[in-house]
Structure prediction request, 160 residues.
Amino acid sequence: MSRTGVPDDASAAHDLDFRILGPLEVVDGAGMVLDLGSRKQRAVLALLTLSAPHVVPLDQLIDRLWTNELPSSATGTLQAYISQLRRVLEPWRSPRSPARVLRTREPGYLLDIAPDQLDANRFTRATEAAHAALAEGRPEDAGVAGHGPRLAEAGAWWFG
Prediction:
């Protein structure tokens, strides 16, 4: 947070919570669910989220968004979706400054988030910890008997 009360790019970007275990949602640091826009715009974010932190090529995004009829304006429309998503995900960023969350990287785009910013990664980590606890003979730590900490934690990430 800067002295003016405006979040700095780094802290605000790391406060975003991406949720795909259920309906796609992004929650900011204040607990507000962000308006991700139209169905296709949400689909762009879903594709990038599922591939994070890897680059999704532009042609792959276009192929997935327009499976039957490819409009002549597909590239421009996709770029507009990216621009709108950047405004939603990084409202503090000035228009000419580089994006920190939804980045342009040849040959396409990537969602640059930490592993713990994605609920599916937290779910996987919690279930792996539960499996490890079981393998070590600690069912109480795994949550098998009475839904202990690991399985309860994993279940908390699943919603919808």
Notes: DSSP finds seven helices and five strands in the chain. The two ends are 32 Å apart (CA to CA). Residues 39 and 45 are 10 Å apart (CA to CA).
